[in-house]
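Q: What would this complex look like in 3D?
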Amino acid sequence: QGTRDHPPARVALRDRLLGTVVSCFKRHGAAAIDTPVLELRETLMGKYGEDTKLVYELQDQGGELLALRYDLTVPFARYLAMNKITNMKRYHIAKVYRRDNPAMTRGRYREFYQCDFDIAGHFDPMIPDAECLKIVYEILSDLQLGDFLIKVNDRRILNGVFAICGVPESKFITMCSTMDKLDKMPWEEVRSEMVGEKGLSLEAADHIGEYVQLHGGLDLIERLLQDPKLSQNKLAKEGLGDMKLLFEYLTLFGITGKISFDLSLARGLDYYTGVIFEAVLLQQQNDHVEEPVGVGSVAGGGRYDGLVGMFDPKGRKVPCVGVSIGIERIFSILERRVEASGEKVRTTETQVLVATPQKHLLAARLKLISELWDAGIKAEMSYKKDPKLLKQLQYCEDTGIPLAAIVGEQELSDGVVKLRDVATREEVRV
Amino acid sequence: QGTRDHPPARVALRDRLLGTVVSCFKRHGAAAIDTPVLELRETLMGKYGEDTKLVYELQDQGGELLALRYDLTVPFARYLAMNKITNMKRYHIAKVYRRDNPAMTRGRYREFYQCDFDIAGHFDPMIPDAECLKIVYEILSDLQLGDFLIKVNDRRILNGVFAICGVPESKFITMCSTMDKLDKMPWEEVRSEMVGEKGLSLEAADHIGEYVQLHGGLDLIERLLQDPKLSQNKLAKEGLGDMKLLFEYLTLFGITGKISFDLSLARGLDYYTGVIFEAVLLQQQNDHVEEPVGVGSVAGGGRYDGLVGMFDPKGRKVPCVGVSIGIERIFSILERRVEASGEKVRTTETQVLVATPQKHLLAARLKLISELWDAGIKAEMSYKKDPKLLKQLQYCEDTGIPLAAIVGEQELSDGVVKLRDVATREEVRV
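A: Here is my prediction, written as structure tokens for the whole assembly.
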């Protein structure tokens, strides 16, 4: 339940999609790493807040207690700490596992791909962060998914808002989890969760609500920097200063048109410490294709400066910022589009079918196809001893093979091959 | 234990290796499929004989009882039966899991890649089987691993030998398991296991021993077809007839020089029903590189006509033949060679580093690199605001970046970029 087989058409489309993502990661100079699907159970425990209960655990069959990785970020942090790496730009594309309620139509599975790009190291503020946003922009543009918006916020600004609204510091993280539900439920419901479950006063919640509705660009940053209360909060001021710097860099990248500084963005995970962001596709009126409603965010990420230190015996910190592309959601959109367009995705790359028009010519086919393979040409032939020519040509049409190399008795004695263009039916002797 | 992280240099080498394998599979017209890492526990149980105890099981956390896949063949058979597919040529490259005793120096892990190519369907005898052997030949040649030998046998011939030597049919499969140890221990030990553990008479074991020592080509097949006892056995005769046909096809492919019909080859798995084969690298005296001793087989496979039927409610059979490339063993050989040669494997593909020679030029770098990325050029820059030029150039040398695009104050005011060849130190203004 929540997993699925991927038939050839789906793998072909997925490989095309992953190709675009990998190209972008390589364009930005990232190296690839790989880690085991299995992690020590203790590595994963306590890293995902409430969602730790969704970790798949292996049976105790003797030896170590193991679990399946839940994301690629925690294994990356473990890898950095274990190998004492303080500086790295890496990407990792692999499957992760969550015992979640699957929602297959919206591309939510228990086994799914993550495509992560992260920059680890002590650097000057906001330069790697800006590159992560540029990467999201490039990938969503390259994939031609239609219009999109990248929401940006900073945990420090959020925490500042909480602080000046009277939320005790011990509740900051759980408040972020509640806030994170804002893209699934209206503010009124989030507000009542804050008051009912999290024990906030109505006034505090309403005060938070005023800030949370704000979104904009540099103008909003400037306004909040002048905000009499918020500007007094050290964390918020730091966050707003960095946000301003970030927008400067994004202006140089020419991508601010699709970036929105949005105070309602919180992100669910515990480990974020600075900039956070999330990309959403904008609903569009499209004459031909019905876009699935509520596909949600298609990319997200942020800065997590404390995670690596949790795996280091001496607690040495390695600041990190990274982005994860929601490839499964994007895939389910693309798959629907391909279906709607009636485009036939080829599942093989075969260039030529070696065919025979008469019986007793298997040896000729085997000899010719062997020559073609040895010359690096992608070739197939029927596994029947004496297949009918019509069936062989039909196979070309069904699978999109563009050429048939036909050897009959005449061709054999003339020492030639008849090369047939399957679409035009033109034939040449070569 | 038995798993490992793969740092960038290893992933880069692995991707190169997998690229060669995938090219060959595609050259032969195979489509890719993917299946979940998780299978229902019942799917895997009873498919691997004694080795079923090596299957990793997931903890019962409610819902289905799951296990990690042990190989790619059983999931493929399950996939065919579940989707009622009777005809397919597919490849699948993915990780599998075995709670085995790891022997990391010899490339044996608990998590490792398998690269499988299989042909399913009712066809004329030995045509797909011959293609599988051609594939092994091509891949081992393409990888330039040095001299190799592909041993071929047929379960039907082996069973015929057992029958005429007086082994009861109920012991055929367990006899194959014992025979399979012949590449790890001498005949004397295998013989005493046959007599001691499997309860064979000394005469029967010695009689088997006579056959088991035989290996050769078409001549041996002809001789055995004349063997007064063996030729009387229906199964053996069928197997020998097909072996003759196989050698005819392999002759047309021009690869018999590296094929040996070897009666000692048994293969461990229960599910084989016909042709079986295994490729081994031949020990070579190499002046430069010490080859690891006992790397064992680097590819293997065979025909399994009954497996798909085990997953079909009506038991409908889909004959299959396939090959698995032992990529981890090959990888450990290649890795040792690369280490010995001192070759530096680049882990990124970056073409140009955007650099500045003075302070306060971050904006110029950000603008230029953005242009390069947008033009599809693989580019990096330092994440420091004001990095030293020497450090930037040193980074190019360390990571193999061939070009540096330098923007200084002079270049900025002239509206040019200084393009520096890192190796030759030549510079041009563009």
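A: To summarize the key features: Chain A has two domains: 8-341, 352-429. The longest strand of chain A covers residues 88-97.
Q: Very helpful, thank you.
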